[in-house]
UniProtKB/TrEMBL annotation:
Protein localization: Cytoplasm
One GO process term, biological-process aspect: cysteinyl-tRNA aminoacylation
Gene Ontology cellular component list: cytosol
Subunit structure: Monomer.
GO molecular function: ATP binding; cysteine-tRNA ligase activity; zinc ion binding
Name recorded for this polypeptide: Cysteine--tRNA ligase
Entry's family note: Belongs to the class-I aminoacyl-tRNA synthetase family.
CDD domains in alphabetical order: CysRS_core
Record-listed E.C. numbers: 6.1.1.16
Gene source species: Kosmotoga olearia (strain ATCC BAA-1733 / DSM 21960 / TBF 19.5.1)
Segments carrying motif 'KMSKS' region: 265-269
Binding site for ATP: K268
Primary subcellular site in the record, as a coarse category: cytoplasm
Amino acid sequence: MLRITNTLTGKKEEFIPITPGEVRIYVCGPTVYNFVHLGNSRPAITFDAFRRYLEYRGYRVILAQNFTDIDDKIIIKANEEGVDALEIAERYIVQYWKDSLALGIRPANFHPRTTHFVDEIIEFIQDLIDKGFAYVVDGDVYFNVSEFKNYGELSHRKLEDMIAGARIEPGEKKKSPEDFALWKAAKEGEPFWNSPWGPGRPGWHIECSVMSTCILGETFDIHAGGADLIFPHHENEKAQSEARHGKTFARYWMHNGMMRLAGSKMSKSLGNFITIKDAVKKYGKDAIRLFIFSKHYRSPIDYSEEMLAENLRAVKRVNAILRDFEKSEGDKPLFSKKTPFVKEQIERFIEALDDDFNTPKAVALMFDLINKMGETKNRNRKLEIYHLIRNEFGPVLGILEKDEEVSANIDGLVKLLIEIRAEFKKDKNYEKADQIRDRLNELGIKLMDTPEGTKYTF
Ligand SMILES: Nc1ncnc2c1ncn2[C@@H]1O[C@H](COP(=O)(O)OP(=O)(O)OP(=O)(O)O)[C@@H](O)[C@H]1O
Ligand SMILES: [Zn+2]
């Protein structure tokens, strides 16, 4: 029985989908005004693996993740560079795809963009106005929080406390400090769309309510994202959607804890971030994924170069064991899921992940098995473990998968470059020989000249 912690109730609950066998999930995606960072990769990797796990458990998963492609931060960046806001968004969406591919994140079924849903957003806001939940002031539209009785239910806050803590920013024309913008009238030089309230653009929260309900329905199974989004973003999404449709918006809310760097949330706006590009170059996707899975998704995780380096060493060690086995035994199809040993391991894996997606426990099981594989002399047991890691558990977490063809090609190419380098050295062209060594080194492939010839590691 799959159980997940639902932020709405604060409890670990049995997961029961609306439609048997099918799970509809919405994950808040990035605001595209800069490179995505390792902190952003936490929800991406976590919910990618969670989706794979649901599929492993037999569900058909429908996953939507948005791109916020219009926002104050995008407009500021565009003005700094003197380019169109959409050009900024486009640039970082392309970068997002490169990074996700490098991290082994499967594309969602839907990747909606805010600017493609402006008509639907206007329609949604108009309906909120008609139903008495929103009001217009000089071309801005605000959600009237006091009209929605369950406001604060998700973030477990009281409206009185929120009113005391909130303030009206200069330029905002809302009636009450806790109200929030659904539509912002365009200021001089800002991109805008025409609307019944004049030229303007959507506020921050409305887009997710619109895209999620348009794609997944007025009520769907799981809404996910980082815990930093619980308030105000998710609280507001929930209020808008439930006010409009008069029914539950998302049944389960899952939130990942923050990745911290030097004690603070890793964040684009604070500037304390490591880009995915740099991290992948240094540690590779499996070490990063393992690092993320090493902590329960709800707990905070501290960025640690030592931990990433340790995970990289572990990945290399495990891959070496698996590759050695492939070479010596071949990938023989003698695997049966019905043997008591294999059945027991699968049960343990499911037990760990069924328990609020406990990846540290699942990963520990995988490493236990690898150690057993090294210790045992039993060929059949080795084969069973080999298959459990490579073909059963690895693909669920998106790690340690077999990429034989690619690595065989890389082996061949590195050997070819070593031969060419040896010829340069023979001709005393040390400059070119060093160039080959240095370029390979930059790619993470280290050459070592030994009395037995040149060896390499990567
Ligand atoms: N440090 C972090 N750890 C874990 N998840 C994060 C972290 N920072 C952002 N996220 C998550 O990444 C996703 C994309 O968020 P977003 O684009 O707003 O990034 P951000 O870096 O927080 O931006 P900003 O710096 O402007 O707040 C969201 O689900 C968000 O909760
Ligand atoms: Zn959102």
